[in-house]
Amino acid sequence: MHLYLHIPFCKQACHYCDFHFSTNTSRSQEIVNAICKEIELQKDFLGTKNLETIYFGGGTPSLLSISQIEQIFSKIAQHFTIQPRAEITFECNPDDITIQRLTEWRNLGINRLSIGVQSFDENHLKFLNRAHSTSHSMQCISDAQKAGFDNLSIDLIYAIPSVSNEIWKLDLKKAFSFDVNHISSYCLTIEEKTVFGHRLKEKVMKPIDDDFASNQFDILLEEMSKNSFEQYEISNFAKNTAYAVHNTSYWQGDQYLGLGPSAHSFDGNKRFWNVSNNTKYLKAIAVNTVPNEFETLSQKDKANEYLMTGLRTKWGVDLGKLNKILPLSSKDFRETLMRFRKEELIREEKGILRLTKAGKLKADYVASEFFF
Ligand code: SF4
Q1: How many Cα atoms are found within 13 Å in the side-chain-facing hemisphere of 9?
Q2: What structural domains and CATH numbers belong to the chain?
Q3: Which of 79, 134, 210, 329 has a CA between 20 and 30 Å from the CA of residue 88?
C-alpha cells in the first residue's frame, strides 16, 4: 500500500503552478492536526496496514517544522506498519534546506528527496517566480548528498520562453554535474488559473510554441541518454534503475491512500479526491468526516487509464492485460494501432505497445486516439 500526504502551503505562488496550496501558512499546525485525524479516519481504507511507500508532496512539505513532521510520522506508525525498506520521499524547495534539517529529516526515516530546482539560471527562476536562487539550488544538492541522501531527485522545467537550446543544454549539464540518480523534467505548461494563464489571456505572454517545446524535449532525451539516464516515464529519468517507487505505483494502477486537502486516493475501483480548500477540509475533519467525492471506474475507464499511463512508461501497454480489462474485439482499436504503426508513433513487441521517440512527443494524443 502507498500513502500520499498533501501539505497545502507555499511561501509564494510560482507563476505556472495550479496545484492546491495557500501562501497563508498561519494554519499549518491546524492542518497537521487534521491530517493526523484523517489518518485515524482512513486507517482501514485499503485493508492492508503495510506501507511500501510514503510520499510527502504539496505544496511545500519542507515548510513543516521537524516537530510537525514527527507528529505525522508518529500517527502513521500508530496505525500502519512501515515496511523495513519502504521508500519515504519528501518534496522540498532549495531555500528550505539546511544541513541541520537534512540531518533531522534523515533521522526521521526520510530516505528520498525530491528537490524543486526547476532551473539553474537566476533570470529563469525569477521569471517562474520561484522563491529560491541558483546558489540555493547548487548548495542544497551538495548538502543533501553530504547528509547521506543518495536517493535524490531534482525537477527541471524546459520550454521556458527565452531559454535558448544552448541555455537548456547548460542547465542539463549543471544537473548532471551533481551526480543525482533521478531527474524529473516537465515542459512548461500554461494553466488557466495561474499568473501565466492571466498573462496569456491578456495577450502579454505568448503560448509555448510546440516546435520550440519539441526541440527542447529532443535535447532532453539526447542528453539524458548520453549521461546514462534511462527514460522510464515520459517526464522521469533514472540512473541504475533508481525509479521512483511511489510514482511508479500510480502508473501501474496500484491502490493508494491520499491525505490532506486536494489529495487523491484509489482503492482499485473508485477514485476519491479531497476538497481543494483548507478551510472546508478543516471544518469537515473537525466533525470526523472526510471531505471527499468519488467516481467509480467502469471497465472502459480502467482500460483508458491503463492506455494513458502505460504508454507513458517504459513498460508500455500489455495487450493481454488490456484485453482482460476490456475485450479488444473493437475494429477501431486495430485500425488505430495499424495507423500509428505506419506513422511510426507506436511499436509492438511480443504483445507490448510502446511509444517510439516520435510518439513520445505526442503521448497524450496517441493514447486518447485509442480510447474506448
Ligand atoms: S513551490 Fe511547488 S507547489 Fe508551491 S507554488 Fe511553486 S510549484 Fe507550486
Answers
A1: 17
A2: 2-251 (3.20.20.70), 299-370 (1.10.10.920)
A3: 134
